[in-house]
From TrEMBL:
The keyword Endoplasmic reticulum does not apply. Binds 1 divalent metal cation per subunit. This is SMP-30/Gluconolactonase/LRE-like region domain-containing protein. The lineage of its organism: Bacteria, Pseudomonadati, Bacteroidota, Flavobacteriia, Flavobacteriales. Substrate binds at R97, N99. GO terms for molecular function: calcium ion binding; gluconolactonase activity. It comes from Winogradskyella aurantia. Residues 15-251 form the SMP-30/Gluconolactonase/LRE-like region domain.
């Protein structure tokens, strides 16, 4: 099936798709527009809230209530009332912003940073935040991106985009400590890995910046299984819905063949 364009509003950089399986809602952000969106696939209603600084990723709290990481801190956003309030902030330098994030099974927020407004080498980190305190999990990153847990929760997979690799870390659920193990996937073509998610078979789906696709990989042996093309070069992230199909965010590029870069796409992988 060809990718279906779901939403387009001329955004520069859509990112951070997160699907609420319980309530059948999709959340995503337009980083440079400071916007977070809530999309209902059944009604096709799209709501948005402006958070006044770059918004990077979403953590689900309740029905239409989420936590959003912005440069100015973490905000609780309520799409029932179209309101937001700041909850906390991690002590990050002025020259970075948050990027990709994930929640571990114990409720810890794991989130990376990157240089902003300019990307700078090794100024990023990956933090773990829980109940008012935080610590550094991974240091000296450049563009902290995709994060995913193995199905048995023993490993954390992580992408620092300029490395063009997927790293695997031993992850201790009890202590929340990550220890580098090895690199499991290396991208040798033009595309660089960006956001990612894991399917119910333990395989990784990775958005490829400047690669025009989401690619499917086996993290055990590092082999590429398949890829799904999109009509724009810069693919930023992806997540699964309740049917096992993919929502995919993209960004604009300077390519003349870029069709709807900065749009939200839907890729059917199953027959529902």
């Amino acid at each position: 099936m060809e990718p279906k364009l779901i939403f387009y509003s001329n955004s520069q950089l859509l990112e951070g798709p997160r699907f609420d399986l319980e309530h059948n809602l999709l959340y995503f952000v337009s980083i440079l527009d400071y916007l977070v969106y809530c999309y209902n696939p059944e009604t096709q209603e799209i709501l948005s809230i402006n958070l006044k600084s770059p918004a990077s990723c979403v953590f689900i709290l309740d029905f239409k209530i989420i936590l959003v990481a912005t440069k100015n801190g973490f905000y609780e956003v309520n799409f029932n009332t179209l309101s937001s309030k700041q909850k906390f902030q991690i002590d990050i330098p002025e020259n970075v912003r948050y990027n990709d994030g994930i929640e571990d099974p114990k409720g810890r927020i794991i989130i990376g940073t990157m240089g902003f407004p300019e990307v700078k080498e090794n100024v990023g980190k990956v933090f773990s935040y829980h109940q008012g305190s935080y610590k550094t999990l991974i240091d000296h990153t450049t563009i902290s991106n995709g994060l995913a847990f193995s199905l048995d929760q023993k490993f954390l997979y992580f992408i620092d985009t300029p490395t063009k690799k997927v790293a695997r870390y031993f992850y201790d659920i009890d202590t929340g400590v990550a220890k580098f193990d090895t690199y499991v996937i290396e991208f040798k073509a033009e595309g660089a890995p960006d956001g990612m998610c894991m399917d119910n078979k333990g395989m990784l789906w990775i958005a490829e910046w400047n690669g025009g696709c989401v690619s499917n990989w086996n993290p055990i042996n590092g082999h590429k299984i398949q890829e799904r093309k999109l009509p724009c070069p810069n693919v930023t992230s992806c997540c699964f819905d309740k049917y096992g199909n993919l929502y995919v965010t993209t960004a604009k590029s300077e390519s003349e063949t870029d069709a709807y870069g900065g749009g939200l796409f839907y890729i059917e992988l199953t027959n529902n």
